[in-house]
Amino acid sequence: LILSLGSVNIDIIAYSDRLPRPGETIHASRYAMGLGGKGANQAAAASRLAASLGLRVELAGRTGTDAFGELARTHLAGFGVGLSALRSDPDHPTGIALIGVDANSENMITFAGGANMELDVTDVDAIDALLRQTRVLLLQLEIPMPASLEAARRARAAGALVILDPAPAPLDGLPDEAWSLVDLVTPNETETERLVGIRPTDAASAALAADRLQAKGLTRAIVKLGARGVFWRDGRDSGFVPPFQVQAIDSVAAGDCFNGGLAVALARGDTLGDAVRFAAACGALATTRRGAADAAPSFDEVRALLG
Ligand code: ADP
Q1: How far apart, in whole angstroms, are the C-alpha atoms of residue 250 and residue 241?
Q2: CA 45, CA 49: separation in Å to the nearest integer?
Q3: Would you say 261 and 41 are in contact if contact means Cβ atoms under 8 Å apart?
Q4: What is the pLDDT of residue 251?
Q5: Ligand 1 pocket test, candidate residues 258, 259, 276, 306, most atoms within 8 A of CB
Q6: Tens digit of pLDDT for each residue in 51-81?
Q7: Which of 5, 86, 101, 145 is 20 to 30 A removed from 183 (C-alpha atoms)?
Q8: Helix or strand or coil: residue 5?
Q9: How many helices (H) and strands (E) does the chain have?
Q10: Contact yes or no for 87/143 (Cβ under 8 A)
Q11: What is the ipTM of this complex?
Q12: Is the peptide bond before 168 cis (omega within 30 degrees of 0)?
């Protein structure tokens, strides 16, 4: 079982020539609505791949009891994600992201967390049985930290591998406890800079950043460099995976598809180096499609790109 504990949102994206100024109303040329939230995106990406390998994916989190909650569930079920651990909170609305995108792809995002921000240790109690069956636990930073840390503690105790995507970039780094409760962190450039004070731009600077991540107490670390590729370290082993050549049109959720793919590859027993190559192909394919969860590639697409 692969379990993602994290945020579930509905993304509402309006496309216009330019973004509005305060007090102004503008016309959008079109808009789109889709499933988002890092917890949901990573679960959806993993689930789309996992079916081919006989692996199961569940999402733990909270939505409201509103129409957006229903919509999120419908999307997630379409990806084959198990929803037994997704709670409906009658007192808070489903999380939404209001996104404006202009003609230059510049964006502006207001995130209203709603029910996501209410996740607490009672949610973790409710998934105790699932945590005991979990092989890989996926965490991110869009829900309150105490819930994530408690889930990491229990999953670890039951033998799971815990992957933390430190995204969105934490303002004051991670609490000390987090470093001892996770097996693997997967920061991008900005997140790496927030965590260890180095902004990686190539394999050499990513290696330096990975050293510092390891010094925090981890054996394994992955540093994502967007269109420049990805660096990984496992104990003394390390490697750099150059970017797969694709027609990138939208980088939204590349990192989430990367982490979904990483979880699937590690759950089937890949070495970290092989898993990172698989994940990088997932991330690259995600940039060839618009949307968040909707950009997730299929197993056959990933296999074709890996050659
Ligand atoms: P995030 O979305 O967390 O910022 P990145 O943008 O670094 O994550 O993307 C995650 C991974 O996806 C990268 O490390 C890389 O392997 C792959 N990727 C992202 N953008 C591209 C691209 N334009 N071309 C090829 N691969 C890409």
Answers
A1: 21
A2: 7
A3: no
A4: 87
A5: 258
A6: 889 999 999 999 999 999 999 999 999 999 9
A7: 86
A8: strand
A9: 11, 13
A10: no
A11: 0.95
A12: yes
